[in-house]
Every structure is written in structure tokens, then in C-alpha cells.
């Protein structure tokens, strides 16, 4: 099989792709460019396409089909950027690349620890040579009640790992998981809001979940609650969060994802005047940590994205089944 990868990062993905190619036995070509109608020709002579989050609409799929591309895999869990139905109409099979939940789950737990131990304030003040203790008293997570909203792959892992810290765990999910129920108590949202010292979000960014954490939700929470969001920015109404931080209702927040992060993350915008005012306000608070959507970014996860997309394309080439195939 000959695989062509678009939008490949030379500094991390290329090494894994090269190692997989030698281990699994396929040839590859690559470019750092995103695929578009002007550069489809780069994939001429290849069998399969490996892409990332760029849109893959019908006309682009048609163009690759004409170049002889037979199958397609995205190096991401989400595949909403691909017109899967159209790909199947063209006879192309499509795969995604799930990666282990531990990296994101552990990052969320790290954010929770950093928020409750005031690491942003400590780092800032250390830089200013303020080594005093005043205002830096933390709260240990082992004595905290932590509410986990969404107990799918990542939320369930968070519950399993937080159980080791000795936290009291509450959970909410419309589809409770019996394994999670062994370690956490499923409750309704109002109970979770009322009893949690910290709340961590692991629900998907579905339209119906937009602003599920709004001013009304904040008002039902414990005063001084810690909020962690390593899921999707749109789950939280940012204006309501800013108000809740200003009033002290939220005592700390740690956000790997925020609203309107598109066009910021993963670009070097250090020389630009940025349009995202919410981010600037959140960044200015001493008790709010904002990280640039990095929870997935571990060696283990990047390797899995490459390995799983390549193995799916190999299975397609051999006419075999693969757990990574997506259907429309
Ligand atoms: P998943 O599909 O395995 O689990 C999601 C769970 O959320 C499901 O159990 C679902 O029933 C539940 N859910 C849906 N709506 C809910 C609601 N309103 N309230 C409570 N629960 C609800 O997904 P996952 O792989 O565990 O991913 C969880 C989130 O993490 C997603 O938003 C995903 O996009 C995000 N994520 C972020 C990063 C990052 O780098 N920050 C990386 C990967 C995934």
C-alpha cells in the first residue's frame, strides 16, 4: 500500500509514521499542506489518504477519487469534517483513529490539582520573588467531593484515577456506566452542583450541550467551586463564568478549551492583536488557568493517531475489517 499524509507535522508525527511504515510494511509520502483542490495532485499514484481535521467535502473527495485514492483515514477521533456518505458513494472506506483516554483524563486531573493548589498564582508570585504564604492556601483533592459530568471513555477514566486519590465522587450522565457506578455515585445535576467542591466536564460538544454550564448552573453550585473543562469550550457560557469568578461563586477554573478558540490554537499568534476578549479576561484572573487545547497531546496519543489510521488503511487495502472504520 502507498499512503499519502496531508497536514503532517514534521516535528512529531513524521517519526511515528516512518516507524509504522517500516514495521507494518507500507510506502508513504507526505506534505505539511492541508488538502485542497489545488494540491490533490500530490496524492497521485497513492492508494490511500491520511488527513487531520481539515474539511473533506464532496468536491474534494471527487478530486481525490479521480486521482486514484481508494480509502481515507483521519488521524482524529472526530470525523464530522468528512462527508462520509459521499465517500462511501464513491466506494471509499473511511476510518478514524481513537486514542487512549488516559492522556486527556490525566491532564484534567492535573488541571484540577493545579487549580486547587493555586499553581498559577504560585508561579506568578515566585517570578516576582514573593515567597510568602498569604493568599496561597490550597485545598487538597483527597478531601474534596468531585463531580464528573459525562462518564464516557475519558470521564470514566477520570473517575477511576480520582478514586485512587480518595476523593468522594459524584457523577452525572444520561447513560450511566455500571463500572463507574462502582466508584462514583450517580446523582441528578442539581445534586452534583450542590455537593461538589470541584466539577470536571467530559461531555461532548453537541448542540444541545451548548452553555449547559450557564449562570443558572453556577448559582446552584457551592460557593468557591473549582471548574475544570478539558472537553469543549462551548459547554460553558464564558460570560457567565467571568461573572461567577468576579463574584467569588467560582473559586478557581482550569480550562483546556474555551469558546471561540478556532484560529488561535495551534498557531503562533504571538505577534498579533487577538480578537478573543474572553480569553484575555480569563487569562488575567490569578485563579483561572487557560491552556491551548493540549490535553490530547502526548507521545502516546500522537503515536496512536498515526498507528491506528495507518492500520485501518492497511486493513481496507487488504479487504479486511477494522474496528476503526466509520459508517454514515
Ligand atoms: P465519549 O463519547 O466516550 O463520552 C461522552 C459521554 O458524555 C457519554 O457517556 C455521553 O452519554 C455523555 N453526555 C452527553 N451529553 C451529556 C450531558 N449533557 N451531560 C452529561 N453527560 C453527557 O467521549 P470521550 O471520548 O470521553 O470525550 C469526552 C469529551 O472530551 C468530548 O467533548 C471530547 O471532544 C473531549 N476531548 C477533549 C480533548 C482535549 O484535547 N481537550 C481530547 C479528546 C477529547
Summarize the structure.
The protein has 12 helices and 13 strands. The protein has helices at residues 13-24, 58-66, 84-89, 102-116, 119-127, 153-165, 178-181, 189-195, 215-220, 238-247, 277-284, 299-317, and strands at 2-5, 27-30, 48-51, 71-74, 93-95, 145-149, 168-172, 185-186, 198-201, 225-229, 250-255, 288-290, 325-326.
What does it look like?
With 328 residues, this protein is of the alpha/beta class. It is 36% helix and 16% strand. The protein contains 12 helices and 13 strands. The strands form 2 sheets. The chain has a 7-stranded parallel beta sheet with strand order 8-7-6-9-10-11-12, sandwiched between helices. The longest helix has 19 residues, at 299-317. It starts with a strand and ends with a strand. The mean pLDDT is 96. The structure holds nicotinamide-adenine-dinucleotide. Nicotinamide-adenine-dinucleotide binds at residues 101, 104, 149-155, 172-175, 202-205, 209, 212, 230-232, 256-257, 293, 295-296. It holds the Pfam family 2-Hacid_dh_C.
Round the Cα radius of gyration to an integer and report it: 22 Å
In which range does the helix fraction lie? 25-40%
Shape: elongated
Strand content: 15-25%
Provide the CATH top-level class of the largest domain: Alpha Beta
**Class derived from helix and strand content:** alpha/beta
Keywords:
2 domains; seven-stranded parallel sheet; 13 strands; Rossmann fold; six-stranded mixed sheet; elongated; 36% helix; 328 residues; alpha/beta; binds nicotinamide-adenine-dinucleotide
